[in-house]
Amino acid sequence: MITEPLDEARLLDRAEELAALLVDSVEGGASVGFLAPLDAAQALAWWRGRAAAMATGELAVWAAYEGTRVVGTVSLVFPDKPNSRHRAELVKLMVHREARGRGLGRRLLDTAERAAVAAGVTLLHLDTETDSPAEHLYRAAGWTRLGEIPDYAASPAGVLRPTTIYYKQVGAGARAA
Ligand SMILES: CC(C)(COP(=O)(O)OP(=O)(O)OC[C@H]1O[C@@H](n2cnc3c(N)ncnc32)[C@H](O)[C@@H]1OP(=O)(O)O)[C@@H](O)C(=O)NCCC(=O)NCCS
């Protein structure tokens, strides 16, 4: 299993596999921005649309492979505001259902955290559906649970669900904390 950062060309090259991963996550009930059933074409268009944000440096995307197949991904979103250059939001951490429970999610999380530190980021944050499996992963990785927002987003089935906010001070931010 390896993880690699994608550039725009590689993202477009791998967009169909990333789309399949997104469809699989939504089918599995994960709250990752879409309602079920998610159409493969819609998922593909969404991933292709990410390339523009990568070009401006607002988005970084990693893929994880088993063999040559993409089975996981994670992204960091960097705010464009001058007062927020020190922070990034962790989004779209997804592992294909066939590849879960083997440490890939944790490895992708570690990859994104290390890259954030290398980019000078000192604060990471994220939101995740309350009581989702991902919560265990973030807590185990030392993220701090801030609290819940009720009715934050619809589940793939269309039911409003709460989200839980997490943050983690990293790099110089962790040393100063
Ligand atoms: C969350 C997700 C990325 C975890 O991926 P994974 O490869 O199965 O995770 P790992 O194998 O690295 O497991 C990491 C930790 O989470 C725990 N974990 C994984 N799945 C779990 C589950 N269903 N219930 C409870 N704990 C779980 C593991 O036991 C492990 O804990 P440990 O380090 O204490 O042993 C994966 O379930 C997923 O893609 N979910 C759908 C998308 C999603 O919800 N993403 C989060 C959006 S914010």
Tell me the name of the CATH class: Alpha Beta
> Order of SSEs, N→C?
EHHHHEEEHEHEEH
Q: Any idea what the shape is?
A: globular
Please list the strands of the largest sheet in the order they lie side by side. 1-2-3-4-5-7-6
User: Which structural class best describes the helix and strand composition?
Assistant: alpha+beta
Q: Residue ranges: pLDDT <50 for 5 or more in a row?
A: none
Radius of gyration: 16 Å
Let me know the CATH homologous superfamily: Gcn5-related N-acetyltransferase (GNAT)
The whole-number mean of residue pLDDT values reads: 97
Largest sheet properties: 7 strands, mixed
Ions, cofactors, ligands: which are bound? coenzyme A
Description:
With 177 residues, the chain is an alpha+beta fold. The chain has one domain (2-176): Gcn5-related N-acetyltransferase (GNAT) (Aminopeptidase). It is built from seven helices and seven strands. It has helices spanning 8-13, 15-27, 40-49, 51-55, 104-118, 133-140, 172-176; strands at 2-6, 59-66, 69-77, 87-95, 123-129, 144-154, 160-169. The protein has a seven-stranded mixed beta sheet with strand order 1-2-3-4-5-7-6, with helices on both faces. It binds coenzyme A. Coenzyme A (COA) is lined by residues 25, 30, 32, 93-95, 100-106, 126, 128, 132-134, 136-137, 140.
